[in-house]
Specification:
It is built from 12 helices and 20 strands. It has helices at residues 10-21, 46-54, 58-64, 100-114, 226-231, 234-244, 249-252, 296-313, 317-346, 352-364, 370-379, 399-405, and strands at 2-6, 25-30, 41-44, 66-68, 70-75, 80-85, 95-99, 117-120, 124-128, 133-136, 147-150, 168-176, 187-193, 197-203, 214-222, 262-264, 269-270, 275-276, 279-281, 287-288. A hairpin with a 2-residue loop joins strand 18 and strand 19. The radius of gyration is 21 Å and the shape is globular. Mean pLDDT is 91; it is low at 391-406.
Length: 406
């Protein structure tokens, strides 16, 4: 088939690598003038690792990323309120924290090697239903295709979204990992004060073989306060961070300018229809969420794999798209619900919720089932989203089964 993809991010590049590798002609259109990621660090969870393994890219991820064995969250006085250990799911289960640029480069090379074509400087603004092609900002239309994939993120022009932007975002920046201090090279460390003030340090591997280990630093900030932060002298802001977390000083020493930081905003919204004719939404274009569970990139990776699997199993495109939705619907619903539940506990102006969190989180985590439940929640494995992707007989391409799904 001829397949056009809007967006050369994680979802778009992963889909291109799968689909071009399966023999389809794939063209990606992206508004950026040249290749490049936006952002800092992220965690590739066990679910995302499985997707990269299906593309035979997991060894590259391990080479560039940093293995995470646990997530450690504490109040400013040092009381632990979050203690997630991947080993609760098994001895070989872990997360991989990686710089977004490293993951981007891995997927970009894979898409190109598979035969996908990437055209930059093309802003997608709509679609022509008659020709099944993208419409660009300059009025041009792409060549007719058999399938259009919307991987344009939460700002996609294809989904109407109002009042979905969350009030809190985060400042992100990278620094050399503070080896020899209290930080573990295998843990994401966080400090909280209420639900509107928090900081984190996460090892994210290295960009090249001989480069030193890097760390991603993040700081919760209300979107309404961002302009004021830009006007605040950096030393004054650092003093505020150090009052929350004195041990973060070795990381903060690296930052000398506001321009070293990227301010990320987040949204929570699910598109009502993941498939519209021959247009399919994936990643944040379908299901944008807060970063509390670290699932955004992983959900995009699974979406791309699921679409590839569905197109392989069904000869009919419409049946394949319906199969794709069935493969992903329940997992998306589950994690959107969990994200809505947890976001105000960790990022909001609420006084009650963080007080309850700080008082009851530690005692609740001692219940026998909680370590495994928390680990599964973070790992992305609740709902077993990979089961049908790894079992080709589940969605056998039979005519009667295809008609039933449709």
């Amino acid at each position: 088939m001829k397949i056009a993809i809007g967006g050369a991010g994680i979802a778009g590049l992963t889909a291109a690598a799968f689909l071009a590798g399966a023999g389809h002609r794939v063209i990606i259109y992206d508004k950026a003038p040249q290749p490049g990621p936006v952002g800092s660090g992220l965690i590739v969870q066990p679910t995302g690792q499985a997707v990269l393994a299906a593309l035979q890219l997991d060894h590259l991820l391990m080479k560039r990323g940093s293995r995470l064995d646990r997530l450690d969250g504490r109040t400013e006085d040092g009381r632990r309120i979050l203690n997630v250990k991947y080993e609760a799911l098994g001895p070989d289960v872990f997360g991989v924290a990686v710089h977004r640029s490293s993951l981007f480069n891995i997927l970009y090379d894979a898409a190109k090697s598979a035969g996908a074509e990437i055209r930059y400087g093309r802003m997608v603004t709509g679609a022509d239903a008659q020709s099944c092609g993208f419409v660009f900002a300059d009025g041009d239309t792409s060549e007719p295709c058999d399938l259009l994939i919307d991987a344009l993120g939460r700002r996609t022009p294809f989904v109407a979204r109002e009042d979905c932007i969350l009030s809190y975002g985060a400042l992100w920046a990278n620094a050399p990992f503070p080896s020899g201090h209290e930080f573990s090279e295998n843990a994401l460390s966080q400090r909280y004060r209420s639900a509107n003030l928090s900081a984190g340090v996460m090892p994210i591997g290295s960009a090249a073989d001989k480069d030193p280990l890097q760390a991603a630093f993040f700081w919760t900030l209300g979107a309404r306060h961002y302009d004021a932060w830009l006007m605040t002298p950096l030393p004054r802001w650092k003093d505020r961070v150090l009052k929350l977390w004195p041990e973060a000083a070795p990381v903060l020493d690296h930052f000398q300018d506001h321009e070293q930081f990227v301010f990320a905003t987040y949204a929570h919204h699910t598109a009502p229809a993941p498939v519209e004719g021959r247009l399919v939404h994936m990643g944040d274009a379908w299901h944008a969420a807060s970063p509390q569970l670290g699932q955004g990139a992983n959900m995009a990776l699974i979406d791309a794999w699921a679409l590839s699997v569905a197109l392989e199993r069904y000869a009919d495109v419409d049946a394949a798209l319906a199969g794709f939705v069935e493969l992903r619907r329940n997992h998306v619903k589950l994690y959107q619900a969990i994200s809505r539940l947890f976001t105000p506990v960790y990022q909001s102006d609420s006084k009650t919720l963080p007080a309850l969190r700080d008082k009851f989180a530690a005692p609740l985590s001692t219940f026998w089932f909680m370590p495994k439940l928390l680990a599964a929640m973070v790992a992305g494995t609740l709902g077993d989203p990979l089961k049908h992707l790894q079992s080709p007989t589940i969605y056998a391409a039979k005519t009667d089964a295809a008609e039933e799904v449709v």
